[in-house]
Amino acid sequence: AQTVTQSQPEMSVQEAETVTLSCTYDTSESDYYLFWYKQPPSRQMILVIRQEAYKQQNATENRFSVNFQKAAKSFSLKISDSQLGDAAMYFCAQNNAGNMLTFGGGTRLMVKP
Amino acid sequence: ETGVTQSPTHLIKTRGQQVTLRCSSQSGHNTVSWYQQALGQGPQFIFQYYREEENGRGNFPPRFSGLQFPNYSSELNVNALELDDSALYLCASSSTTGTNTEAFFGQGTRLTVV
User: Fold this and answer.
1) How large is the C-alpha radius of gyration of chain B?
2) Per-residue pLDDT tens digits for B2-36
3) pLDDT for A88-111, tens place per residue?
4) Residues sharing a CB contact under 8 Å with residue A83, sequence separation 6 or more, in sequence order
5) Among B43, B56, B98, whose Cβ lies nearest the Cβ of A103?
6) Residue of A71, B28, B49, B58 with fewest CB within 10 Å of its CB?
7) Do A99 and B99 touch (CB under 8 A)?
């Protein structure tokens, strides 16, 4: 069985600063992706960034980047130059061979002006 | 906007009743997955439909059932509602079941059981 753990229920960051959200996972799958999703109050899950397990290079999308440590089964999200619009729930997730997602419990990110 | 639409957006039901939630997948997508998100928690996988067949199921009882139609839209049915079924129900559609395929989520249906 897959498990995804987010140990930070809440994080706070000053606008324009950098914040890192943590995630660990456990799986017996060999082919999988890892994801970070953002869920604003509108409730819709928005894909922020994804990482293929076979790729050693960490994924980057504009201000968002990941630190993928496969041996440690760690997948953290770094948000640079934080903006007020980044405030939301963030979920780490992993898929399996059927593209079914296992989510962590989430981290609430607050951005202070 | 992802092109995935769910209806209704909100619903209140009484314990013991039955409910049907609907999801229209994005154009060209043949796979729909359903998730239950209890308040303050991450979504949990209920089941997935691929080309009208159930393709995988999470740890949910048989009173959670589903359908996928020839146009790949989908329904989630819950019988004998319990108070703990109160949650946000999310559907996600994708073009295949491959791991490299992005899943697109709808805005969810908020179900309250009283």
Assistant:
1) 13
2) 689 999 999 999 999 999 999 999 888 999 999 99
3) 999 999 998 778 899 999 999 999
4) A15, A63, A111
5) B43
6) A71
7) yes
